[in-house]
Specification:
CATH superfamily of the largest domain: Glutaredoxin
Protein name: Thiol-disulfide isomerase/thioredoxin
Distance between the termini: 50 Å
Order of helices and strands: HEEHEHEHEHEEH
Number of helices: 6
Keywords: Isomerase, Membrane, Transmembrane, Transmembrane helix
CATH architecture of the largest domain: 3-Layer(aba) Sandwich
Helix content: 40-55%
Pfam families: AhpC-TSA (PF00578)
Domain Thioredoxin: 31-171
Strand order of the largest sheet: 5-4-3-6-7
CATH class of the largest domain: Alpha Beta
Number of domains: 2
InterPro entries: AhpC/TSA (IPR000866), Thioredoxin-like_sf (IPR036249), Thioredoxin_domain (IPR013766), Thioredoxin_ResA/DsbE_sf (IPR050553)
Largest sheet: 5 strands, mixed
């Protein structure tokens, strides 16, 4: 009887802590919510390969990820492999390398880490400032040129997959 009660209390504490973590995570994301520049979806952006990218076009068929990261960011080192996996699975990804050096530095870092997701360079942080990015990593899910969801900090591959799926059925 005592073991059952101890197990019940343990599970109850796990559920309570998990719920508290989820609530805290939602509050932090709300506080760090990026603000998109006016008409952001039509802006032409050039990646590190000097190829033009337009968010409205990239997000027309299905939800896309706009991923703000930095080569210096320790949390990004855990998130970027998930972004790479999603890109390999066909999810449109446009990454923004925030204050990570020159185009050559960014391309070298991407090659060194075996990342081939499309990346634009933001060496001074001016582009990220237009979006009011307060933390890295920041991930926005965009569908049909509209921000559907966002998250900051660590996130899992499955957390991103669920957000993408929800954006697809809700958008």
């Amino acid at each position: 009887m005592r073991t059952t009660q101890t197990l019940f209390n343990f599970l109850k504490n796990i559920v309570l802590m998990g719920g508290l973590f989820i609530i805290l995570s939602i509050v932090v994301d709300w506080y760090r919510k990026p603000t998109a520049p006016i008409e952001f979806s039509q802006q032409v952006l050039y990646d590190t390969q000097v190829q033009p990218k337009v968010l409205a076009q990239m997000s027309y068929d299905k939800p896309m990820l706009l991923y703000f990261w930095g080569s210096w960011c320790s949390f990004c080192k855990y998130t970027s492999p998930s972004i790479q996996q999603l890109a390999k699975e066909g999810v449109p990804v446009l990454a923004v390398a925030l204050k990570s050096g020159s185009v050559e530095d960014v391309n070298h870092y991407l090659a060194q880490e075996n990342y081939d997701f499309t990346t634009i360079n933001d060496p001074t942080g001016a582009f990220s400032k237009e979006w009011d990015i307060q933390a890295t990593p920041t991930i926005l899910i965009i569908k049909d040129g509209k921000i559907i969801n966002h998250t900051t900090g660590l996130t899992s591959l499955w957390g991103l997959k669920i957000r993408l799926w929800l954006a697809d059925i809700m958008g």
